[in-house]
């Protein structure tokens, strides 16, 4: 990690640590503290600070909105885990598992309100633009989650439909963080849009890597249940491409696995993983990820700033794609 990435991450964590998270009633606030304390890499707020700094802005002006975006992100994870019945989050029990679903819903609602409070901590001249950007992003993230749930009942989902779903569910938030940093720094509309497009494509690449890690990652380092997407019959990029490319025998195995004719979770994961490997999807997924990464860098290169200004943002994006967790 570069010195700037480290410095900005420490600044974000310092801001979060300064927030009084545990108040009365404790049953409402302890899950909020637990969720935000289970830190992750603070990638989204880091993007906002790097974008602001890239254009020569004052990062003090963007730290509040950046943390607001991070709180919103964690709120979505808290509610997603209930919907997905996910037992683990970042290697620890998810909030609804540690407490219960009702607590996770209510604590998540508090986090949403907190997110808005901190997003509003930006220079007054940018407040409307940042709130408009945030509200648009919230709506799109919800649209993406609904598409994801819709896919559970569809027999067939195309690659195009899937990419649009992850664009909404996953990619628009980092894109919004980058754009917020650019706007607060005084970047032009065109520059802010290019940075947003960079973020969207990095976000799509990130999610494809996440799909890959779910089956080919190591559970101890990944921090989530390996094969969880397969157990939940999630239509990931790997799933869609497997059904598109499979021969008759492979299709039979996939159908047996995903129509729950295989009851043993380990057997189900093993059967699907074997088909993925036969089809070379362990490599193809990484190639698709790199395709979106190259597209992202193309947008970043169009911004007329010295390479030195962009190097930390490029480094962060590469770290996301190289990650093993």
Number of strands: 2
Helical/strand content category: mainly alpha
Q: For the residues shown, what is the average pLDDT? A: 93
Q: Please identify which CATH superfamily we are dealing with.
A: Farnesyl Diphosphate Synthase
**Low-confidence segments, ≥5 residues, pLDDT <50?**
none
Query: Which sheet architecture does the biggest sheet show?
Result: 2 strands, antiparallel
Question: Which strand order does the major sheet show?
Answer: 1-2
Radius of gyration: 20 Å
CATH-derived architecture: Orthogonal Bundle
Strand content: under 5%
Q: What best-fitting shape do the alpha-carbon axes yield?
A: globular
Which range best describes the helical content: under 10%, 10-25%, 25-40%, 40-55%, 55-70% or over 70%? over 70%
Spatial gap, N to C terminus: 16 Å
By CATH, the topology is Farnesyl Diphosphate Synthase
Count of distinct structural domains: 1
> Count of DSSP helices?
16
Helices and strands, in order, run as HHHHEEHHHHHHHHHHHH
The CATH class label is: Mainly Alpha
Describe the structure.
With 325 residues, the chain is mostly helical. It has one domain (3-211, 294-322): Orthogonal Bundle (Farnesyl Diphosphate Synthase), CATH 1.10.600.10. The protein has helices spanning 3-18, 26-37, 43-54, 60-84, 95-98, 101-119, 127-151, 159-185, 189-216, 219-222, 228-231, 237-245, 248-258, 265-278, 281-301, 307-322; strands at residues 88-89, 92-93. The protein has a two-stranded antiparallel sheet. A hairpin with a 2-residue loop joins strand 1 and strand 2 (92-93). Helix 1 (3-18) crosses helix 3, helix 9 runs antiparallel to helix 15 (281-301) and helix 13 runs antiparallel to helix 14. The protein is globular.
């Amino acid at each position: 990690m570069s010195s700037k990435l480290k410095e900005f991450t420490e600044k974000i964590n310092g801001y979060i640590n300064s927030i009084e998270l545990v108040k009365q009633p404790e049953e409402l606030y302890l899950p909020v503290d637990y969720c935000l304390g289970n830190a992750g890499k603070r990638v989204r707020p880091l993007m906002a600070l790097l974008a602001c700094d890239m254009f020569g802005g004052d990062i003090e002006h963007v730290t509040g909105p950046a943390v607001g975006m991070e709180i919103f992100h964690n709120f979505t994870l808290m509610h997603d885990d209930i919907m997905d019945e996910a037992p683990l989050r970042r290697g620890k029990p998810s909030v609804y598992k540690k407490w219960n679903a009702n607590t996770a819903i209510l604590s998540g609602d508090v986090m949403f309100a907190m997110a808005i409070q901190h997003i509003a901590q930006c220079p007054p001249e940018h407040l409307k633009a940042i709130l408009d950007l945030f509200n648009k992003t919230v709506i799109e993230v919800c649209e993406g989650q609904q598409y994801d749930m819709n896919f559970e009942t569809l027999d067939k989902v195309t690659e195009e439909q899937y990419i649009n779903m992850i664009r909404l569910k996953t990619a628009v938030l980092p894109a919004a963080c980058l754009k917020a940093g650019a706007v607060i720094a005084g970047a032009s509309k065109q520059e802010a849009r290019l940075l947003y497009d960079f973020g969207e494509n990095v976000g799509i690449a990130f999610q494809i890597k996440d799909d890959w890690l779910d089956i080919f990652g190591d559970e101890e380092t990944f921090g989530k249940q390996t094969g969880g997407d397969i157990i939940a019959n999630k239509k990931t990029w790997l799933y869609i491409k497997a059904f598109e490319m499979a021969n008759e025998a492979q299709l039979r195995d996939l159908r047996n696995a995903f129509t729950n004719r295989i009851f043993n979770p380990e057997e189900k994961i093993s059967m699907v993983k074997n088909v993925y490997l036969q089809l070379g999807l362990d490599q193809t997924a990484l190639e698709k990820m790199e395709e979106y990464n190259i597209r992202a860098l193309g947008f970043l290169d169009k911004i007329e700033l010295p390479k030195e200004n962009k190097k930390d943002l490029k480094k962060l994006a590469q770290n996301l794609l190289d990650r093993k967790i």
